[in-house]
């Protein structure tokens, strides 16, 4: 009978611990979800100017969380894609579905506009704007109840490149000189090496060379240092923020190998990188006709959310 008594005692202790933990969490949840706190939830603050440039004002949108799960709200900063020369901060479609899941988990999302490539706007103005947007969020954290020590970044395609470079080397960009540290980085199919296009198909390489010529302001031979500096793969270090990468294995715009070689180099540096390859996924996370992605978008979103929670709970 002695083993039975031991098991029963263990179960009693376990059930008591679970009840106490549940009670503590309930008290904590009630304490941070006061009537005054709920007033600020599930709101959108649109077109807030964070910076003025010679070509006009730059703005951002703030999506407040749907519920408060943290005493101070962690933030996910979103940078849109579009080859650095198109796109805007407006969130819609699949991106909005993912954002809604993040808002449900107690995060605020801040979507940022930055200067796009033009005759006068060349690298690094895009990233200077992105870095200054992050600094603005940190400086105004108390106004919105944000946790200035829990600023995370996400981006897709060119936005993924923005997220990686700003997350790893962001203090080297911007008009402001104040330092900041990013909590975690999420890269969705972004280019990681602008200096080596050997991964691309001949037609894809020709297209990318044209995009990069406009983005950097010259060819690789003319602007070698800029191409190298603009490549996130060249900034990998052991103590960089944790990174979540996902990339379609059938991406015909940014080759899957771009993510793969970044991941392998990060492993060699013993950096913290979570890599989710997507079978049958293209650049937009769609599968060819009569095929299915593995993992599907919903599972990728769940993995991404788990990653964010893991690095922001404490």
TL;DR?
This protein is α/β, with parallel strands linked by helices and 314 residues long. 40% of the residues lie in helices and 18% in strands.
What does this structure look like?
Helix content is 40%, strand content 18%. With 314 residues, the chain is α/β, with parallel strands linked by helices. It has 2 domains: 1-32; 37-310, Alpha/Beta hydrolase fold, catalytic domain (Rossmann fold, 3-Layer(aba) Sandwich), CATH 3.40.50.1820. The protein has an 8-stranded mixed beta sheet, with helices on both faces. β5, α6 and β6 (185-188) form a beta-alpha-beta unit. The radius of gyration is 22 Å and the shape is globular. The model is unreliable at 20-28 (pLDDT under 50).
Task: Please give a handful of descriptors for the protein shown.
314 residues
Helix content: 40-55%
Biggest sheet features: 8 strands, mixed
> Strand share of the residues?
15-25%
How do the helices and strands follow one another from N- to C-terminus?
HHEEEHEHHEHEHHEHEH
Write the layout of secondary structure elements.
Layout: H1 2-32, H2 35-38, E1 44-53, E2 56-63, E3 73-79, H3 93-104, E4 108-112, H4 125-139, H5 141-144, E5 146-156, H6 158-169, E6 185-188, H7 202-217, H8 224-229, E7 243-248, H9 256-268, E8 273-278, H10 297-310
Parallel strand pairs: 3-4, 3-5, 5-6, 6-7, 7-8
Antiparallel strand pairs: 1-2, 2-4
